[in-house]
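Sample log: SDR family oxidoreductase.
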Amino acid sequence: MRIFVTGASGWIGSATVPHLLAAGHDVVGLARSDGSARRVEALGAGVHRGGLDDLESLRAGAQGADAVVHLAFKHDFADYDGAGRTERAVVGAFVDELADSGRALLLASGLVGTPGVVMTENDSSVFSGPDAPRGGSEALALDAADRGVRSVALRFSATVHGVGDHGFTSVLTQIARERGVSGYVGDGSSRWPAVHVGDAGRLVALAVDKAPAGSAVHAVAEEGVPSREIAEAISRAVGVPAVSVDPADAPEHFGWLSGFWGMDAVASSALTRELLGWEPTGPTLLEDIAAGAYDHAARG
């Protein structure tokens, strides 16, 4: 198949493209800049120039593709509502282009369910509608299964970890270095699902080939790692104490990350493993932290 990938040069995209190529697919990656284009080419994929604000370019990329894998997102937490509006517009453009064709649209999503309840692939996203986080894009895409689109939600763990990660775990490590303490919220019982980036990339490639229309797959190797254990692992990596932060003080201590860090989000991947024949093989989150995967943030 010919596959158009947004975010191909990014963290998860750069782990996904090699698996798509190894499966025999022809891959074209979206590139906004010359640097992104060089990274996409280095992965062995073709380049399609454009960005998330250029809907015509996105439609053109999807037009010649058998499947679209949408991994890009504007990670602008200073204007998260604006990022959500962009995301909804992008997914809407893809749906319109792919409608009535049976072609696939796989899009990145998250794992946010009911605190304390293990989220499964059969659970609907709690975010729906244009004003929801990420523009309610998962629901928008999955509803397109009724319009002849093989839409699939790729629900990624809160932390997709590994050497070179600059996501949430990296930010927590940087905060610990700057604050002189590695903090967790309250008693640290809130949990994050986790998956190694290599396992996540392999899952996406399997979903392209196997996931049916209207389905969700979970990139989850560990159902829920307690935040206290994550903070303690970071404390050892940075060389600072691990401490509890009162929930009322969390916004000041953790900034924009506080809402995510105190969230209890547990998720299963049992149905995904059965459907795709996927088994994670990479290191755990705590193993990655201990092995120095976040030294770039710990040392500054």
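Observation: The two ends are 42 Å apart (CA to CA).
Observation: The chain has two domains: 2-158+195-220, 160-194+223-265+282-298.
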